[in-house]
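Anyone up for a design puzzle?
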């Protein structure tokens, strides 16, 4: 199955919106060195968003032949679950989840890993769909970097107004992609 550039871009945006929301929340309270911190957030979130799909793809490629008959159901389930989880979490986001401006490197790595677990599952889906992984990984990393970088800067101006809504949009994009994959396979089948 071929996945179009536009679809991969939508997946990249969907995956990066949780990192964007954290960057927005951080930007609200970052007082100094905003550009430097925006770069660090972008690099950390973007880097992990590139790494995780590669790991997922590597794992998925090993099982692809064994599950070829129902891989579309797995891709659908993963994307649907990830999207639904993002939507659910958007409604449960509490002040405790908002990061402080002076997060340590360890905390930032933890946040980057936590926000990129979804990308791991997407990497598995890409393996099942036989998608060439290089372009999606680069696109996911670049989009996440740019949105996280911008999130810190925008957050310093008006961050808390939009962060829950952004999570909902990201979840809806991923759910929609999962439904599309399943629909195309069932229609062709």
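Challenge accepted. My sequence:
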């Amino acid at each position: 199955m071929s996945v179009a550039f536009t679809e991969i871009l939508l997946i990249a945006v969907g995956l990066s919106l949780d990192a964007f929301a954290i960057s927005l929340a951080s930007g609200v309270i970052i007082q100094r060195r905003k550009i430097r911190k925006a770069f660090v957030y972008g690099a950390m979130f973007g880097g992990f968003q590139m790494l995780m799909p590669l790991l997922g793809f590597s794992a998925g490629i090993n099982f692809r032949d064994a599950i070829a008959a129902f891989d579309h159901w797995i891709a659908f389930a993963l994307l649907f679950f990830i999207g639904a989880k993002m939507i659910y979490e958007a409604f449960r986001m509490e002040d405790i989840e908002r990061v402080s401006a002076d997060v340590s490197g360890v905390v930032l790595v933890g946040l980057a890993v936590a926000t990129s677990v979804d990308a791991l599952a997407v990497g598995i889906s890409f393996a099942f769909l036989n998608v060439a992984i290089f372009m999606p990984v680069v696109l996911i990393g670049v989009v996440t970097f740019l949105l996280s970088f911008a999130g810190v800067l925008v957050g310093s101006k008006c961050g808390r107004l939009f962060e829950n809504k952004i999570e909902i949009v990201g979840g809806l994009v991923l759910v929609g992609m999962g439904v599309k994959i399943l629909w195309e396979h069932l229609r062709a089948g």
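A detail worth pointing out: The CA atoms of residues 12 and 25 lie 20 Å apart.
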